[in-house]
Design brief:
It contains five helices and nine strands, in the order ββββαβββαβαβαα. The protein has 184 residues and is an alpha+beta fold. The chain has a domain of 121 residues: VC0467-like (3-Layer(aba) Sandwich), CATH 3.40.1740.
Length: 184
């Protein structure tokens, strides 16, 4: 198993950001964000557990008849919500490799590999220089390694509960709290 990624790493790229259970921002409440970029200029990722219930072919006529028509479509975040981002996960012996911002021709090649996963995102999650670091000092996010079975998990609200619950007993209790405490 890989060493757990700590908040003190130079980069959070390749990690998951799990919304802290107290987060109320509707864009990120109970979200799981896969980070693709994190450097001095800022950070970028996509929300993995906001499925739109649509396929890429339904979103854009450009993909309606091609091999990408059945690719699931997600809301990637609140930034540039008109922009389409294709991403692919390629399994490797040491975990996986993320391909972010994949061109359609390359995404089709990944679809031919049954072990690879391709998803489409409308918009993305982005932070300007220092913004994510500031949020981290306020415990807005929980940093987690990407579990090997990530793509086998349901890509809905249960993903947040599952991954956060794996971070330890206290996190598991918080993850299992009802959305509305009055229902407890």
């Amino acid at each position: 198993m890989r060493e757990r990624r700590k908040d003190t790493k130079d980069t959070l790229a390749g990690s998951l950001l799990l919304a802290h259970p107290s987060m109320r921002d509707p864009n990120f409440r109970r979200s799981v964000v896969l980070m693709s970029v994190h450097n001095a200029e800022g950070a970028m990722g996509v929300v993995l557990n906001r499925p739109t219930g649509k396929r890429l072919g339904e979103f854009s006529g450009d993909f309606a008849l091609g091999p990408l028509a059945a690719v699931p479509l997600f809301t990637g975040g609140p930034v540039q919500t008109e922009q389409l981002v294709l991403a692919a996960w390629e399994p490797r012996d040491d975990g996986f490799r993320l391909h972010f911002g994949v061109e359609p021709d390359k995404a089709i090649q990944f679809l031919a590999d049954e072990s690879a996963h391709v998803r489409a995102f409308v918009g993305y999650s982005g932070w300007s220089a220092g913004q994510l670091e500031n949020e981290m000092t306020h415990n807005t996010w929980v940093v987690a390694d990407v579990p090997e079975d990530l793509m086998a998990q349901a890509a809905d609200d249960s993903l947040w509960r599952t991954v956060l619950g794996r971070e330890g007993a206290e996190w598991r209790l918080l993850a299992d709290e009802p959305e509305n405490p009055e229902q407890n």
